[in-house]
Structures are given as structure tokens and as C-alpha cells.
Amino acid sequence: MSNGIPIHIRVNGQERSVEVAPHHTLLEVLRDDLHLTGTKECCLVGECGACTVILNGRTVDSCLVLAVEADGAEVMTVEGLSRDGRLSPLQQAFLDKGAVQCGFCTPGVLMSAHALLGEHPHPSVEEVQDGLAGNLCRCACYQQIAEAIRAAGEREP
Amino acid sequence: MRAFSYARPERLAEAVDLLHTLGADARILAGGTDLILRLRDGTLTPRLVIDVKRIPELRPGIREERGRLVIGATTVMTDVAAHPLVRQTFQALADAAAVVGAVQIRNRATLAGNICNASPAADTSPPLLVYGAVVVAEGPGGTRRLPLDEFFVRSGVTTLQRGELVSAIELPMPGRRMGAVHLRRTRRRGHDLASVTLCCGVDQAGVTRLAYGSVGPRPLLRTDDTGILADPHRPEGEKLAILERMFAEASPSKKSMRASPEYRLAMLRVMGLRAVRGAIERLTQGGAR
User: Fold this and answer.
1) Per-domain residue ranges of chain B
2) In this structure, are strands B178-185 and B220-224 parallel, antiparallel, or unpaired?
3) How confident is the model over B106-115, as a mean pLDDT?
4) Thinking of the domain B61-172, which architecture would CATH place it in?
5) Model ipTM?
6) A19, A59, A110, A112: which to substitute to probe chain B, counting the most B Cβ within 10 Å?
7) What are the pLDDT digits (tens) for A58-77?
8) Is A2's pLDDT higher than 60?
């Protein structure tokens, strides 16, 4: 078995080079090798969205991507949202609207919401529901999450 | 996940060689949304995973070429659903691609992977069958073009031969105006596999093509050229009799956790009638060509 394939990825704007085993997922490499533990491991079957990251501009379940596949790619994780220690308007809206309960789904939800706002700066409730269909929140604060995303959309010019 | 080796060929011939040499010990990785699940749960234990995303012949993209719409093998569902030519001319395929999984899955899952995985519940299979899709396979013997109806065998099994891989899916541009709709039944809205998935297309000559899945080992395509299904004025009872014949070979599994066979068969009739009505409506609105 071949082991240790060198890959280069740009994570939250920073160039990173790591050696990865072919059977390690992007999720494992982000958490275990790059120590970016904001991205959560949960269902491992692409149902819950807790491990959502943005890969080359698009949301993916990082549990369903091999790290080697991300060689040469641009990855954004929840750690990339804040600027100079300040929460992004989207993150702030989540706090303001009480959209964070236990918080385990929040990093994935934020990444889906960030991508959604990139595509639809002022999303309708339906667009939020479609855009977030792949993120489960077992505290069930879907209403507050939708409100927070729409509020963040309104805040942006 | 159990360890395996990884290859990322940049030439088609290299991928074909590896596949031919290793047979079932090699597995193709495109979007990975089916493969990685099975690598993780241990139902598949290949020695080699072949990532085909850097092979030029398989590159993502949708283009019109000599009367056909050619969809590259690594084109993902998000792009199939959003492409103007697909939305305009193959609307039911765009609709089906738009309901596969959720955003994260659609950003990764490929149309070709959906076909090669050969799940009877695959949502893109019914519209692809209705539109007469052709699978382009590359192998040691060169290129083969297989009508999709001759591609499916049963869940996970296709008529691809050892060493072959899919490079593209082609859809003939319709010669006649056609209205088509895709319908599915799921346990809940959003992210779920279909209990019944179905597509109906009605063309201006009165031919109706109906394909359905998730009610047997493979999706099935049936054609009605009596003109009865396509006729907006015929009574539904008469149409139902034809639909019953079209659904005669549906054989839903008793073991599925998603829905009972009785429920699926009952829904098949309801959705069949609904899809025929919807297809006629789309044709009346102008259809696509």
C-alpha cells in the first residue's frame, strides 16, 4: 500500500503542504493534520452536513472527499469566516438571532449559508431551505437559522 | 476506512489499462458520494482507487455537438441542473438532477456516477431513459456507444465490460417537440432517496415515453404509441389501463425500509397519471426542442 502522498492545498488563504494516506478524507486531514477542528465529524455518510467546507468555491461534505482529491484546491473552513478576530456579519447574525444552540451543526451550517449568500445575496425562505437541506440541526433551530441567514443578507449592501 | 492505493491518471489509456489489469480490484472515483460510503463501510475493498477527474476525455462540461448534447463524465449534478441547454431542451433531466441529495452532494455527485452506480432509485435514470440517452464507454477495444436501456442490469451492475469506463453521456437533440416531467416520492422533503422515481415525456406526434425506477432491480422504459396517453381529452380510466400494462413488470422489494411494495405500486399509478398530465401541459406550453 502506498503511503504518504504529498498534497498542497490552500486553506483559508494559507498554503499548506501535508503528506496524506490515500484513504484519509479531507475531514480527517483538516482536523487531525491541520488541527482545524471547527469542521465537525458526525454522520460520515453525507447526510448531516456537519463536515461541510467550501472546496474550490462549492460546498462539499468533507467526509466524502479524499484528501488526495483536494490536491491543488482551495479550501475554506469555518475558521476562515472571521476577519482579524472579528466575527463575520453572518456569524454575528447567528448569535443575534439565537441560531446557535448546542453548536455542533453550526460550522457546517455557516459554510452552507456563506455559499448560499454568495449565490443569492438576499435569499427567500425557500432558497434558504433548499440551500440548507443538507445540514441537519438536532436542536431544531431551523427557524432561527433561516432568520439569521436572511438577516445577514439584509445587512450586506 | 481500510487502506488502498490511489492513482490519478492524466491519460485515458492509463486508466483503461489499470482497470483492465485489476478488474474488480480497482474502483473508479469520480464524485465519490457513493464510492466513499462503501469504502468506509467495507462493502467494497479495492486495492486501487482510480481518480478519473484529471483525464481530459472525461472532463466536466456540457456541449452541443452534431445533433447531440454531450455531458462529460465528471460533470456534477449542480451543473447539469443549471445548464441552459439542459433546462431548455431536457427540462425533466434538469429537474431530476436538482433533487439528487442536497447541495453538498450535488456539488460532488456526477451524472455518469449516478448511472454507473446503477441504483434502481437513481433519479436521473428515468429522464435519461425517456430522452434516449446513450452511454459512451471507453475500453481496451476502443469506444462503444450503449443505449442507456441496454446499460442497466441490476443495482450496482451494468453491461460495462472489464477495462471499460464511461467518458460521456449523450442525449440526441429531439427531432419533435416534447414535454416531459420528472416526479418522485420520498418519505420527507429534501434529502432522501426516492420510493418511486418516474419520468414521462409526450411528443407532438402523440408518442409517450415513460420510465420509472425504485420499484424493481433496474429502472424500466415503456412506450405508448397508440396516442391515447398523449391525448388530453381521453378519459383517465382509459389511460390507467395503458399505464397498468406499462407498470406490469414493476416488482418492488419487500425488504426495503423506505416503502412497502403495495405503497410503491399504488403511488406508481397515481404518479403515472400525474406525470402524463404534467407532460401534456408542458407540451401545450410549447415543449422543448
Assistant:
1) 5-51, 61-172, 178-284
2) unpaired
3) 98
4) 2-Layer Sandwich (3.30)
5) 0.96
6) A59
7) 999 999 999 999 999 999 99
8) no
pLDDT tens-digit readout, B36-95: 999 999 999 999 999 999 999 999 999 999 999 999 999 999 999 999 999 999 999 999
Rounded-to-5 percentages of helix, strand, coil across chain B = 35, 25, 40
Answer whether B37 touches A (CB < 8 Å).
Answer: yes
Question: Quick one: pLDDT at residue B186?
Answer: 86
Chain B nearest C-alpha distance from A77 (Å) = 14
Contact between A131 and A112 (Cβ < 8 Å):
yes
Domain B5-51 has CATH 3.30.43.10: yes
Tell me: pLDDT of A157 over 60. Answer: no
B180-209: pLDDT as tens digits: 999 998 887 767 788 899 999 999 999 999
Which CATH number is associated with domain B178-284? 3.30.390.50
Q: Specify whether the CB–CB gap between B160 and B137 falls below 8 A.
A: yes
Confirm whether A5-78 and A89-155 share one CATH topology: no
Given CB atoms, is B230 within the 8 Å cutoff of chain A? no
Give Dmax over CA atoms of chain A in angstroms: 53
Fold of A89-155: DNA polymerase; domain 1 (1.10.150)
Distance set, CA B136 to CA A28, A30, B127 (Å)? 35, 37, 17
Q: At what angle do helices A106-119 and A142-155 cross, to 10 degrees?
A: 40
Q: Which of A22, A115, A129 minimises the CB distance to B49? A: A22
Q: How far is B271 from chain A (nearest CA, A)?
A: 23
Instruction: Say if B187 is an interface residue toward chain A (CB within 8 Å).
Output: no
Taking the Cβ of residue B147 and every Cβ of chain A, the question of whether any pair is shorter than 8 Å is answered with: no
Mean pLDDT along residues B119-123: 94
Query: Predicted confidence band at A47 (pLDDT cuts at 50, 70, 90)?
Result: very high
Tell me whether strands B178-185 and B196-203 are parallel, antiparallel or unpaired: antiparallel
Spelled out in words, what is the top-level CATH class assigned to the domain A5-78? alpha beta
Residues of A with CB under 8 A from a CB of B: 1-3, 5, 21-25, 44-47, 49, 52, 55, 58-61, 63-66, 68-69, 112, 115, 129-131, 133-135
What are the structural domain ranges in chain A?
5-78, 89-155
Q: Is the pLDDT of residue B112 over 60?
A: yes
